[in-house]
Design goal:
Length: 151
């Protein structure tokens, strides 16, 4: 029986080709991306100046209407009656026609209260209305996991 005298066991080879492909693609991506950023910085634009300028207020992304268990309504944390809600939403919609409303009704409230808020949003002309709900098994008072579904 012949004995092996040489220690030339082949080591497994690692194929580096896929890793090098990824690295080269990343290099090209970042080179092209920095090229566009530099081009934007070099645009010579002098912005206009005004004498009587006011700071513009940021438009809120979404307004939040809470309907409490006893039927009370709060718009962004401020308690309102149903008529005040219609007036407030109407004036806000005139300033921002794309305004979005999310309605959060308490799980133990009558649906009639939520339906009244939906009707108030409709009469104020708000078209982007969503209802917030939690998946089953989660705490109803927690905001974690709340999702807004379009109405």
């Amino acid at each position: 029986m012949p004995l092996k005298t040489s220690q030339d066991d082949d080591m497994p080879a690692i194929n580096l080709t896929p890793m090098l492909d990824i690295v080269f693609n990343l290099i090209i991506f970042f080179m092209v991306g920095t090229r566009f950023v530099d081009a934007e910085k070099k645009v010579d634009v002098k912005v206009p100046q005004v004498k009587h300028g006011e700071n513009m207020t940021a438009v809120p992304d979404k307004r939040l209407v809470n309907v409490h268990q006893n039927g009370e309504i709060a718009l962004d944390g401020r308690d309102l009656s149903l008529d005040q809600l219609v007036a407030q939403l109407g004036s806000d919609r005139r300033r921002n026609p794309e305004m979005a409303i999310t309605i959060r009704g308490d799980a133990k409230t009558d649906f009639q209260h939520v339906a009244a808020v939906l009707a108030a949003c409709n009469s104020a002309g708000v078209k982007n209305v969503g209802i917030s709900m939690s998946p089953s098994g989660s705490n109803h008072t927690a905001d974690r996991g709340a999702r807004s579904k379009p109405y």
